[in-house]
Amino acid sequence: MKCFVKFVGVLDKDGGVHHVHFLRGLNIITGKSSTGKSAIIEIFDYCFGSEDYTVPEGEITKAASLYFTVLGFEGFDLVLARRPDDKHAFVREVESWTGDEPIFIDASLFQDGYFRPLKDFKDELGRYFSVKMDSVDEDDSYKTYTGRRSPTPSVRSFTSFMLQHQNLIANKHAVFYRFDEKEKREQVINHFKIFMGVSNQPYFVLSQRLEEMNQELRKLELSLPRRDEEKKKARSQIEHALEAYEAISGSAFVGMDAQGVLANPEQSLQRLTETTISIDANNSDFDKQRQDRDVRRSKILADLREMAKKKSALQKSVEFSAAFVTNADAIPLPGSADIAVSACPFCQSTENHIEHEANMLVEAIEWLNNELRISPYMRETFEAEEREIDNQLRLKRDELKAVQAEIDELDRQTAELARGRSLTELTIRAKTRVEATLELLISLSKVDSQPRINELRNSIKDVTAELAKFDVKQRMDDIRVFIDKEMKEIGANFDFEESYLPINLHFALDTFDLWHEQDGKKIFLRSMGSGANWLYCHLTLFLAMHRAFAAYSDKGCKIPPVLFLDQPTQVYFPNYLSDSGEEFDAEELAQGVGREGRVDDDLESVVKMYKELIRCCELASERYGVTPQIIVTDHADHLDLGNWNFDSFVRARWRSHGFIQFDS
């Protein structure tokens, strides 16, 4: 995004305009304490949509009726403005202005119709930076757990990369603005690939579509075994229904056996509806079926008893194995044994029987040790067999339950006949049961998921290929490598402590962690010692990132390469509150903080820092055709920058007056 800050200013209550004019590249506002330097970054943040009104209390807040920022885009300028402590914001596009004085800024510009609620303002501003998106979910997991969609990108996330406040620029615990809020930190990290132009709305639409198809495919694939089981169950029910029909009616079902009916259930159902029932009261099928089920029940009961006996034996084996190990551990063992050859006291003949017994004992011990080693595995084997027996018992009990249900049905028919129910009535009921079961089987057979499964698999393959074209992982890794490479180049020009040289900083895009790697060990910022190290880590990272923003501006990067640095030299001149003279005096600032003897070294480090800021902008312009904008508010002044003239970068010098000045 080739955008930069042109003006930051205040419209006072009398209609006067107070402003600072900025250019691309390095911009310096220098001055003594309490002149409004730090207000610049707060005014920009407020005009850029901050929920908080944090402009420092003082002359500025007393005089201000409105704060404004003018952003320069290619072909037009965008004016942003806020009234003090107001939840509405102003955004208006105007013609591009090239002068040093914003003469187009006056009270008449800020018409009420251009003020809108803060949320609407952020949405409108987001359109100028192309970050307005409807959805960034790649799947429904976030919505499942929270009940809402993931937060969409906002231009407010840009401020984490653009603003380094006075209390942040050399902080060892925090690197990014607004990262003290966990939710905002996660949003910035998650949306970074969007801000860098790596992923966009079509990418997330495709990702959501892919996840939806994968979910549907998983459901269908999981339903296949259940549907097969339902079909198997329906076939079994038809066989039992046909047997019940034949048992009560005494005749076969429309002249077909169960195998024939199952071979063509639709035709069988048609024939059944067109055929009147016939009853053969002399048929003995009922008795045969009753006897057959009694035999089956007896066989199942016998199998259950055999399985129960086997399970009992396995349980005892498991108990014995456990007891064997426990008892073996409790047996006291001698630490050593002396073996000697015995000799007869009379004839002096020797006997090696003890040695033979000792050898047998060794063999026995080896056998025991081997048994002890395999006993845990034996126990696991027994337990596995016990689980298998439990499964067989469950299936066999289900089989017994089904046979008992058939017996109960046959006995119920007999009982109903005894109560005066007619054979015709019972046969009609049996016929209806056959019809219902056939209809169920037909409906299950008609639902064929395989064509839809094949269609989904082909679509998933196509969408996966489309997503692969975005190459998100590789492109993000390329950005990480780019930032690490730039940090290595930039960091070499800063005065890091000698123990960290050569500086070897790395940055993780998935966590936004920053560390120095030395001898294979990660040394994070909080463990790197002095304030100068922390300052240079911040500067190295942010300069490298803004070079990346410049390099990727033509590849869809939406973050403008604009960086505010507030009081970066405070690590060398911490006594800045005493800076009240007409000129910057490093010696005076060094007094009282024990750095009098290091003023020359400190100034040399500060000069190196400013040179690197200039070099960063110029190299980015040469390499990528985009010049980052760095706005520094500081006390340092009149520095000797060698080939560069310090005054050429100064946009305001507030020594005799401050930001707000009235005509005398």
From TrEMBL:
Which UniProt keyword terms apply here?
Answer: Coiled coil
Give the matching Pfam families. DUF3732
Q: Which chain regions cross the lipid bilayer?
A: none
In terms of InterPro entries, this protein maps to: DUF3732, P-loop_NTPase
Q: Can you tell which superkingdom this protein's organism belongs to? A: Bacteria
- From the record, what ranges are coiled-coil? 203-230, 386-420
Q: What is this protein called?
A: ATPase
Recall the taxonomic lineage recorded for the source organism.
Bacteria, Pseudomonadati, Pseudomonadota, Gammaproteobacteria, Lysobacterales
